[in-house]
Amino acid sequence: MTRNIIVLDTTLRDGEQVPGAKMNVYQKLEFAQQLKRLHVDIIEAGFPASSAGDFHSVQQIARTVGDSVSITALARAVKADIDAVYESIKLAQDPFIHIVLGTSNVHVEKKFNRSKDAVLQMGVDAVKYAKTLLPQVQYSTEDASRSDFEYLWRTIEAVVKAGATIINIPDTVGYAVPEEFGELIRKINERLKNLNDKVVLSVHCHNDLGLATANTLSAIKNGADKIECTINGLGERAGNTSLEEVIMALKVRENFYQCSTRVETKELIRTARLLTYLTGLDVQVNKAITGDNAFAHSSGIHQDGLLKDRNVYEIMDPRDVGAESMELVLTARSGRHAFRHAVEKLGFETGDSEQFEALFQKFLALADLKKEVYDHDLFYLVNGEREQAASSAVLYELAAFHVVTGSVQPSATIELKRGEQSLKGSATGDGPVDAVYSAIKQLTGIHADLKHYKINSISRGQEAIGRVSIGLEANGKHYVGRAMDTDIVKASALAFLNGINAALLDREPQ
Ligand SMILES: CC(=O)SCCNC(=O)CCNC(=O)[C@H](O)C(C)(C)COP(=O)(O)OP(=O)(O)OC[C@H]1O[C@@H](n2cnc3c(N)ncnc32)[C@H](O)[C@@H]1OP(=O)(O)O
Ligand SMILES: CC(C)C(=O)C(=O)O
Ligand SMILES: [Mg+2]
């Protein structure tokens, strides 16, 4: 008999704590919809007390996917944080409040400068308060793996008696090693079952020593009922446990773990690609499950073996994680049937006939420029179109641009549209992109400092698409912008406008 493991995805909370991983509300909603398709049990949607923007995103996620996925969000052991969590998730069907509070000596003494008893009491009070709002409360003993065991247990016992229904044991700084972490979970599990066998035992591991997946699996083997993970292992510092790795380890080695999950593994690659697209954070090519080379075989002896029998060098079928064994190459000579087939094969809906036609025309324009359109390009084409439709509140649009560069001083002429209004202006700069950015700043009148600029080539072929990610500071806050185009100057202009629009929307909510 297999045991079901509850899967919580915290990409939108711990994952989003990563510099550069910030997403806007439309992007978070798109990702949450994909997590729903992936069949995770719980989405940790954010940290609503941290800003009005995060509160709004958590609320929108709870409203949009909270009918079929359990939703939680994080709070310190602070009343205002707990209130913010409750207010943002209360419309979901199965919401719960997640409270975190440190148990290690260094947290108690250095972070809080209080006695152990006083910190424990803070946790108990927080749980009692959260219970007045919702029946389900998760309590995380932050830095558990570096905590004195008897104090850790005393805390768990007290918060369970106060009403906590899930106890989450974090290896916050990735210090644990598998044998030791497994033993810790075994001991807690034994005592917890005697104390209250309805309480769910959960783990949350970080990857500072590259052991997050191993520690999570060891915890499962030793009785953990629930795991917290992120897609591509995104998360604070070296990241969190990678969801796809644990899920596939449980599936491929079911004979050893005798556990299963509800996760729809065929959605794994698509979820990982979507996250890369939304955050601009690429995955290393040799990353297990979601790296570009995870299912690529290059050496002759391996290829020979595979041709004789796939099992010689394959422990899982690439199709089980949503990887294509064969890619369809589309060109400008492809028709609507082939295009629809390719888009649907990637798992996207093609919309009504008007939406489909608009998408097809965009595809033709791209195919004319790029000659060959790969699955990867289609993925970005469809997502870009959706994101544009979702963010109809965008303030400025690029209507036209012209740049001059070479042995003269680079200059740019830009035409922007804002609703019915048309604005045109020119500027010079150190280079064409700098000139474009100066002209955009002049026209929008926004004081924005470019903090970082990154350009990558995505997809293959000579006419690959350039993806630009920028970070800018405006109104004392940091905003990100991303865009892609076969013309890198245009992609640069669009990414900058994206960031400017995010800053303006923050100042003038629509
Ligand atoms: C392990 C984790 O991943 S925990 C989650 C990490 N996530 C985040 O930090 C989310 C983003 N954070 C934020 O937006 C802000 O830090 C806020 C809104 C939470 C707090 O902002 P501020 O009030 O300005 O406080 P600041 O961040 O400077 O300091 C943290 C304060 O919270 C206290 N604190 C830290 N953890 C906890 C906790 N679990 N419970 C109660 N208080 C806590 C600290 O002791 C400090 O209080 P002090 O000012 O009395 O010393
Ligand atoms: C909030 C907790 C679970 C956390 O992220 C950690 O301890 O790493
Ligand atoms: Mg964490």
TrEMBL record:
Residues 5-269 form the Pyruvate carboxyltransferase domain. SMART domains: LeuA_dimer. The keyword Repressor does not apply. It comes from the Bacteria. GO terms for cellular component: cytoplasm. One of its GO terms (molecular function) is manganese ion binding. Residues 397-510 are annotated as: Regulatory domain. Catalyzes the condensation of the acetyl group of acetyl-CoA with 3-methyl-2-oxobutanoate (2-ketoisovalerate) to form 3-carboxy-3-hydroxy-4-methylpentanoate (2-isopropylmalate). Homodimer. This is 2-isopropylmalate synthase. It comes from Paenibacillus montaniterrae.
